[in-house]
Amino acid sequence: MIKKVAILANGGDVAGFNAVIRGIVKTAENSGVECYGFIDGYNGLLKNNFVKLSTAEDGNAEGILHKGGSIIGSSTNANVFNYKVKKEDGTIEYQDLSNVCIENIKKDEFDCVFTLGGDGTQKSARDFATKGVNVIGVPKTIDNDVACTEITFGYNTAVSVAMEALDRLHTTGETHHRIMVLEVMGRYAGWIALEAAIAGGADAALIPEIPYDINRVADKIKNRQKRGKDFGIVVVAEGAKLKDGEITVQGLRDNGKGVDNTKLGGVGEVVAKQLQELTGLEARNTTLGYMQRGGTPTAYDRVLSTKYGTAAMNLAIEGKFGNLVVIKNGKIDYASLEDVVGQNKQIGAVSGNTAESNQRKVTMDDDLVKTARSVGINLGD
Predict the structure, then answer these.
(1) How many angstroms separate the CA atoms of 36 and 174, rounded?
(2) In 258-284, which positions are buried (b, 16+ CB within 10 angstroms) versus exposed (e)?
(3) What is the pLDDT of residues 233-291, one digit of tens each?
């Protein structure tokens, strides 16, 4: 019998975090279940820092449906199975502190923990499930790359923001006869770039799944010039790379082991410079950055997030732990966290773009790829 549950939001912020929290809390309250939130993701779980969540008239989970971000914070650097610890002598040591988290859960008498996050978050959720914790995941990421689900919450809002940016860049490009490049997020999956390119009428979309030949993109722009169109619109995912090239790395972070410490960025500037040299047109890059993450969620994301939140709480009531709430064939469903993790079986192992990862990437037979090619969007190949 579920009596008391906790939520943690982890990873980069997205629009829809609060809508999921609200969905879980409202469903819990209607079922007589107390709901709490760990502050700042897995860091809060480790430090046992949590608050009571309520949708009462003056409650902290009331009136949050439209708000971006997360009322309980989030963390991007907390792999508690390989946690960075600074010792008294100043040296750094990585420790498995997951048992501290488990003791906190037992002491607080939480019957289930909901993990709102992407690939890395759900990898840790699976590891906790393996160690006996009742956990249910909810798939979050603007990159839309969580395995076993057709869509993650936060993605639709990110695409909508990118589309609006393209609409604005289009008018500037046409007015000043320039190539306008828009760099969007998408480390290892090109869903945002591809869908935004279709929605925004771009001429080319460069995604991580298709290493690009810049000459093919330049040829697309030159063909437009021959037809009297002296401008172009190009969308580039941050993880796009040249054929036989590498991704453009802005720097390396030190957020501990078991998390992706590569900071991407800069490929948009590279592409703009290359296209200017090859076409003779001025080219300008705009990097959309965190604009894609913040702000008000779209109607689609509000509904999707609410569906995910209510479904997650109902799974807990039914005792179906160790699962991720998903959209399958357009309907709410669930998948085992073991299936979500795929071959990344080792406890505390690195999450992200590794041979063992099970990230959902764009495939060449996807309808979005076929649609893009059909309307003449160049994919760099």
Answers:
(1) 52
(2) bbbeeebbbbbbbbbebbbebbebebb
(3) 999 999 999 998 788 877 666 655 655 667 777 999 999 999 999 999 999 999 999 99
> Rounded to whole angstroms, how far apart are CA atoms 182 and 238?
10
Fold for the domain defined by 4-154+297-341: Rossmann fold (3.40.50)
Tokens 């078991």: give the residue: 258
How far apart CA 369 and CA 200 sit, in angstroms, is 15
**One-character DSSP codes across 163-177:** HHHHHHHHHHHHHHT
Residue whose tokens read 């509000």: 302
Cβ atoms within 10 Å, residue 111 = 18
In single-letter form, the type of residue at position 336 comes to S
Domain ranges of the chain: 4-154+297-341, 158-293+364-374
**Residue 222, Cβ density class (10 Å: 0-12 exposed, 13-18 middle, ≥19 buried):** middle
SS3 250: strand
Query: Cα(first)–Cα(last) distance of the chain, in Å?
Result: 55
Which CATH code of 2.40.70.10, 3.40.1190.10, 3.40.50.620, 3.40.50.460 fits the domain covering 158-293+364-374? Answer: 3.40.50.460
Examine the residue annotation and report whether 143 is marked as an active-site residue of this protein: yes
- Which residue type occupies 52? K
Name the token pair of 208: 């991580």
- The residues with which 251 forms a beta bridge, in sequence order, are 263
In DSSP notation, 84-132 reads: EEE-TTS-EEEE--HHHHHHHHHHHT-SEEEEEESHHHHHHHHHHHHTT
pLDDT digits (tens, 9 = 90+) for 181-220: 999 999 999 999 999 999 999 999 999 999 999 999 999 9
How far is Cα 353 from Cα 187, in angstroms, rounded to an integer? 9
DSSP for 25-45 reads HHHHHHTT-EEEEETTHHHHH
Of 119, 143, 145, 260, the catalytic one is: 143
pLDDT computed for residue 53 by the predictor: 97
Mean pLDDT of 64-77: 93
